[in-house]
Amino acid sequence: MPSPRSFLFLLGSARTGGNTETLARAAAEHLEPEAAQEWIRLADLALPPFKDLRHTGDGTTPPATGPERTVQDATLAATDIVIASPLYWYSVSGSIKNYLDYWSGWLRVPGLDFKARMRGRRLWAVTVQGDDDPAAAAPLAGTLRLSAEYMGMDWRGVLLGCGSRPGQVLRDDAALAAAKTFFTPETDTPGIRH
Ligand SMILES: Cc1cc2nc3c(=O)[nH]c(=O)nc-3n(C[C@H](O)[C@H](O)[C@H](O)COP(=O)(O)O)c2cc1C
């Protein structure tokens, strides 16, 4: 028996009740019951802007505290990390980008072993865009695929929906159909699915 999966959903929209969260929750409904789920709305976390300390002092990053510690602990507790970001300027939203920038600091926290501990964990993405053309999400998919590769993580691909106003993604029948099987462990096509 494989050990139960533990999902961390990072919500990156700059509004509540948006399409990306709707699509992510539609996909999460089909997770196996034993899978744990934690949802973090980055807009509510008040994570400060990332500071690059690589070439300051001894180049290490101090241990995380406050909201940084909250999201770091959640990241390290998850077997599966889901970046639920609206498509903003063809890529991830600013709050998601800020979260990912923190990974760079966490690589340099003495004793944390962030890279070694993240190796082999799965990275997924859910996104919704206003554009009808799925190619618009290619930079988002590329950013996350390459980041996963850098970290030695298992890139599991993007669930893509279309919609502009909140709720519109519920009219995207193809995305809702793809959501039903998106998190299936054996899915072997980590591209963009919609
Ligand atoms: C700052 C910003 C940038 C956006 N950039 C894009 C874009 O590059 N391509 C696109 O198709 N839609 C773009 N959109 C539209 C959103 O992707 C779309 O409205 C989506 O439904 C928003 O997700 P949400 O409902 O989860 O907030 C943008 C919206 C905002 C607010």
UniProtKB/TrEMBL annotation:
<protein>
    <submittedName>
        <fullName>Flavodoxin</fullName>
    </submittedName>
</protein>
<feature type="domain" description="NADPH-dependent FMN reductase-like">
    <location>
        <begin position="8"/>
        <end position="133"/>
    </location>
</feature>
<keyword id="KW-0288">FMN</keyword>
<dbReference type="InterPro" id="IPR029039">
    <property type="entry name" value="Flavoprotein-like_sf"/>
</dbReference>
<dbReference type="InterPro" id="IPR005025">
    <property type="entry name" value="FMN_Rdtase-like_dom"/>
</dbReference>
<keyword id="KW-0285">Flavoprotein</keyword>
<dbReference type="GO" id="GO:0016491">
    <property type="term" value="F:oxidoreductase activity"/>
</dbReference>
<dbReference type="Pfam" id="PF03358">
    <property type="entry name" value="FMN_red"/>
</dbReference>
<dbReference type="InterPro" id="IPR051796">
    <property type="entry name" value="ISF_SsuE-like"/>
</dbReference>
